[in-house]
Design brief:
The protein has 314 residues and is of the alpha/beta class. It contains eleven helices and eleven strands. It has two domains: 165 residues, Glutaredoxin, CATH 3.40.30.110; 129 residues, Glutathione S-transferase Yfyf (Class Pi), Chain A, domain 2 (Up-down Bundle), CATH 1.20.1050.
Length: 314
């Protein structure tokens, strides 16, 4: 039987490209994990019960510690399961810096690309939800613009894929060499999204022969060993365990955060999302952990990245 304190519980849905990034990370590390399938669209009551309102995909749970955003998830996987590593070279800092582009501007561009290619055929509820997240309050006009700008968006995507193709032109199996790394998962989820959700994706990608070979190598890494779990059981797991997050605030804290201080945390974009409220448990340059106590869960700790998230003292 798995240890309830250390078993990985992954809250996601199959079509999520960001979840695919993490699933590849599970595969690189050869991990077993429990899969809780969540709805593609809000409301997501079981998920937001755990997170305190955060509704994005994916979320990882280990006991009563809840990890939001793939930045936090990948960092925690590397900390808990260091071998095989997601950082096989000495370029860890550069990989994290590059990931802010793959997960930020490049992914946002890919979303506009995919949404724009579908145009009026996009499901209205899905369009309203994802449009609000990625295109802002005036998402309907943004969607029309993305559709009209599709040739431009294709041109913008062609450049980075050409760079990746060049990187792989010496025959290497993965972007950094013979072993897969976090950066492979971080680029792969964009390519996976383009191929699977854009009708012209396969023909477009066929230009990049080295990239297509690499894509097959990453796909062959697999997803580790998943097994299904009911969301009610995941909530029970959080209630039956205690969070293991350390307490403290690192030196040079720019926002004056202190342990026990009440704060809210939310993505640093105007996506119309609910902030998560709690008390500071831990903070450093990379991570903010807030502690929440509810009747349904008891005490849980919710982990967020600092990069890309806004913290407000309440």
């Amino acid at each position: 039987m798995s240890d309830p304190v250390s078993e990985i519980i992954f809250h996601a849905y199959p079509q999520s490209p960001v979840a695919e990034k993490v699933r590849i990370a599970f595969g690189i590390k050869g991990l077993a994990w429990r899969n809780v399938e969540i709805p593609r669209l809000p409301p997501k009551p079981m998920l937001t019960t755990l997170t305190g309102g955060y509704r994005r995909t994916p979320v990882m749970q280990i006991g009563a510690d809840i990890y939001c955003d793939s930045q936090c998830i990948i960092r925690e996987l590397e900390r808990r399961f260091p071998s095989p590593t997601l950082m096989p070279t000495d370029d860890q800092g550069l990989m994290w810096c590059l990931s802010r582009w793959t997960d930020g501007a490049l992914f946002d561009q890919t979303v506009r690309h995919v949404l724009g290619s579908v145009g009026d055929q996009l499901d209205k509820d899905f369009a309203a939800d994802r449009g609000r997240l990625y295109l802002g309050e005036d998402w309907a006009e943004g969607l029309k613009k993305a559709n009209a700008d599709l040739p431009h968006l294709v041109a913008q995507m062609r450049a980075p894929l050409s760079w990746l193709n060049d990187q792989l032109s010496d025959g290497r199996a993965f972007l950094l060499g013979a072993e897969p790394a976090a950066i492979d998962a971080q680029f792969y989820h964009v390519v996976w999204f383009l191929r699977g959700r854009w009708a012209d994706g396969p023909s477009f990608l066929s230009e990049f022969t080295h990239l297509v070979r690499w894509e097959g190598n990453v796909q062959a890494v697999g997803h580790g060993t998943p097994s299904a779990m009911f969301p009610e059981d995941a909530i029970a797991r959080a209630r039956e365990t205690e969070p293991l997050a350390q307490a403290g605030v690192a030196a040079n804290e720019p926002q004056g955060l202190e342990v026990g201080m009440p704060v809210t945390v939310m993505p640093d974009v105007n996506g119309g999302e609910q902030p998560v409220a709690g008390k500071v448990r831990f903070a450093n340059a990379e991570t903010i952990v807030i502690e929440r106590t509810t009747d349904e869960l008891g005490t849980v700790c919710v982990h967020f990245p600092r990069s890309g998230y806004r913290i407000d003292v309440t």
